[in-house]
Each structure stands twice: as C-alpha cells, then as structure tokens.
Design brief:
alpha+beta, Heat Shock Protein 90, Methyltransferase, Cobalt-precorrin-4 Transmethylase, Domain 2, 33% helix, 4 domains, four-stranded mixed β-sheet, six-stranded mixed β-sheet, single chain, 16 helices
C-alpha cells in the first residue's frame, strides 16, 4: 500500500506528529483525504497502541487548533487491517478555504495544501485567491431573523443518545455567528421555524391526481427528518411472491439506500434559498428533490466516488452526533450499491434522486397506468424485434434510438414485462446495475410469429 494524493500514513501519534498540518492540507484540497495512524511510511501495518485516548486527542487538536472550524468536516474512527487496529481520520474538502493553524493565522506557515502525496506550505498568492472566493453565505454565517429560539426538541434527541447538552451547546455546535447572534443553522434546529418539508403521494405516474399531501416541519429539522423517515418506512411496503420452493419478500425500495437518500437530501439541501427538500411518491417510483446542485469544487465523478464537500457542516455535525449519518462520504456509495448513477439528476439549481419501485402488482398496473402509457402493439412489437440475446436497458434504448428513459420504460419495457414477453436476468435484484432483459418463451413465439405474419398481439 502506497501513499497517494488522498491517503497519508503515520506510524503513531506522538508529540512530533503535526496532525494539524496533514488535516489542513486535506481541508484545503479539492478531494479531501484519509489519514491512517498505525501504518508506517512504507505501507506496513504496525497498529495503533492507545486507540481511545489517541482518538480523543486527535479530535481535540483538530477542534481547537484549526480555523475556520472544521467541525462537521472530519471523522475519527477505528478500523481493522491485517489483524491490527488502526485510527482512520476522514477529512472532507471544506467550503471556507483557506484553513490554517490558529497560532500562525492565514500565512504560509499556517496554511497547507496537498501536493501529490505530501502536505506543502500554501503560497501567498493561493491563500489570497482562496480567501477571495471563500463561501460567505453558509447557514453558519447567516444571522437568524429570529433570536428568540428554543431548543427543547434538540435537547431531547441528544439526551436519548446519552449526550446531554450543556450551557455552552450553542457555541459548541456552532449555532452562533462571530458576534454571538444565533445563525441560520440554529434557526433550522430550533423548536419553531418556518421551514416545512413536503411529502406528496400521487395515484399514478404523473402529478395529475394528488391523493395525499403531508407537511413535516415548522419544528426542529431533526424532528422533521425523523417524521419523514417514519412515513417513508410505512410507505415502503413489503410484497411477497410464493414459488414451489420458497416464499420471497421484497420492499418497494431498498431501505438502506432510501434512508441514505432522505438524509442526504436534508443535510445537503441549500437552505440559503429558503427552499426545503421535497419528497414525492408515485405508483412506480419515489422522487427526492433538494435545492442546490453539486457544491463548488465537486464534480459528478468525485460525487459518485464518495468525495464529500458538506454544504452544511453545522447540520452534518449534529446529524452525526445523533447517529443519523455515519462516516463522511458514505451515503452516495451506499445508494450506488443498490441503484444506478442514472437515478441522480443534476440541474443548475436542484438535485433530484429517482428510485423506481421494484414491484408493481397487475392490479396496480391496470388501475394506475394512464391510457397513454398502456401497452401499444407497435411499440412492444418493435421492442421484441431488437432482441438477439440478453440486453441492458441502455442497449435496448440505443437499438430503438430512444433517448428518453421514462418514455422507454412506460411505453416499451413495462408493457412487455407485464405481458410476460420479456423477463429480468436477475429477478431477485431488479435494481441491480448488472440487470439485463431477455425474451421469454412466450416473447420468442410472438417475435417469430411477427416475423412470418404481420398482425396484432
């Protein structure tokens, strides 16, 4: 194992190790990085000795010796490698660059940047450039228009986790601005606010017929998040299919992925626009929309690989304290274990995640599919005609020269599946990225019949 631009090895935590320097370099680096304590410079795993004590020391040093605050931008966890226990420090790229050692300030002696596999002093010109483009409209810097806020709900959630809040909690959780005023993060976490998260449920594939409209908000964002999670859990019904050998049960959406998506949308929403995330349940999918596209400095490739630039580090800190999130950058990779990248849609102002329902009963399909989406003889016939074996959805779209995914799914793919003319190659994992489709025996008969004799199905 060798060090890289994103991985740094340290044999042990001692007085000679400048851990602040390494963390600052990753905070100022566009991709963040990982620091392992217990691996020597040659990549040999030697293990860390006093894990618990060293982890506390690292957290305190990062908290007290780095400015601007890095709280919510790092995790310190233990990890096992080669039978030995290590300390892993996960550092996200920060949005308030340049980060620096407090005792040296914003100077070449205090600022560092990752260059190759080393932390190097940051040139003065880079320091000035980063400072000039620093994010100044974050929820931690915006003053709340209400200063008469209470936090009883937040206290209850912390007490449930055996982490009671003390008198200094507003400062410790960075809920105040430099002049001591409550900030917008405090407003979002307060018992009362004007933020409402909407959850709508529709009868069919479109928004024409609303059958349920719920609002979860005007309260602490933690309470609203828990209400959304509870509601989606109820909606995520389990369906069973019985075969001669076994009974198979499956949820509409993968529960791990959908939980990560919900929390990701809430934590990373751009609240400076005063727009809350939106959740919409259709007969064939769930859509989760949040304000704001990818943060500056993060492209789609980095996003899908798990690199993280938390938009709201104050919220991330609280959500992590309350165990609603785990390690930094773990949410998107977890979602991608169950769904394709194509489920994510980015625009200039919004991010939308679309997760197809894994199961629809025949009665649901008959009752809910609008007439314009019902099986068309010509369209299904056209789909069957391009099969030459097993094909992915994208391959089939390309063969048919169809660019619009939803149109293909509703007018071609779904009707053919309902009529049992085609089938999944991995039926137990309908959302697998390796999923393909093939003709059934019935579909092959139809295809052969259409070749020899034109007609209707």
């Amino acid at each position: 194992m060798a060090e890289t631009n994103r991985i740094e090895y340290k044999r042990e935590l001692n007085n000679d190790l400048d851990i602040e320097k390494e963390v600052i370099a990753f905070l100022n680096y566009s991709e963040g990085g990982l620091i392992y304590i217990g691996i020597d410079k040659h990549g040999n795993v030697v293990g860390a000795s006093d894990i618990d004590s060293d982890m506390l020391k690292i957290k305190d040093r990062i908290k007290n010796n780095i400015s601007p605050s890095a709280m919510g931008l790092f995790d310190v966890v233990s990890e096992h490698k080669s039978g030995k226990e290590l300390i892993k420090i996960i550092v996200a790229s920060g949005s308030e660059k340049p980060y620096f050692k407090r005792k040296y300030g914003m100077t070449e002696k205090g600022c560092f940047i990752r260059v190759g596999s080393a932390a190097e002093p940051m040139p003065k010109t880079m320091i000035e450039k980063l400072f000039s483009t620093r994010t100044r409209n974050s929820i931690g810097l915006i003053k709340s228009h209400r200063q008469d806020l209470s936090f009883q709900q937040l206290r209850i959630y912390y007490e449930e986790k055996k982490k009671p809040l003390n008198k200094q909690f507003k400062k410790n959780l960075e809920l105040v601005t430099e002049d001591g005023s409550l900030n917008y993060a405090a407003y979002l976490l307060a018992d009362e606010n004007n933020i409402s998260i909407k959850l709508a449920k529709y009868k069919s594939f479109n928004r024409n017929e609303l059958i349920e409209n719920n609002e979860y908000g005007y309260c602490s964002l933690i309470k609203a998040t828990q209400s959304i999670l509870d509601k989606i859990t109820i909606e995520n019904k389990t369906f069973a299919s019985i075969t001669p050998k076994e009974r198979k049960e499956q949820r509409l959406w993968n529960p791990i992925a959908i939980r990560e998506a919900i929390i990701n949308a809430i934590v990373h929403n751009d609240y400076t626009r005063e727009v809350a995330p939106k959740f919409e349940i259709f007969s064939d999918r769930i859509e989760i929309t949040s304000a704001g596209s990818l943060p500056d400095g993060l492209n789609q490739t980095e996003f899908f690989e798990g690199f993280s630039i938390p938009r709201n580090k104050e919220l991330m800190r609280v959500f992590k304290d309350l165990e609603l999130v785990e390690q930094l950058g773990s949410g998107v990779p977890r979602i991608l274990e169950h769904y394709d990248k194509e489920c994510f849609h980015f625009t200039e102002n919004f991010t939308r995640m679309v997760f197809p329902s894994s199961i629809m009963t025949i009665s649901q399909v008959t009752a809910q599919v609008p007439r314009k989406y019902r099986a068309s003889t010509a369209q299904v016939k056209e789909l069957l005609s391009v099969f030459t074996g097993e094909h992915s959805r994208l391959e089939l779209q390309e063969k048919l020269s169809l660019a619009h995914r939803e149109n293909f799914r509703k007018k071609y793919l779904q009707p053919a599946l309902e009529q049992k003319l085609i089938e999944l190659t991995i039926p137990d994992k309908p959302n697998s990225r390796k999923q393909k489709y093939r003709l059934t025996a019935k579909g092959q008969v139809y295809k052969d019949k259409k070749k020899s004799k034109p007609g209707s199905m």
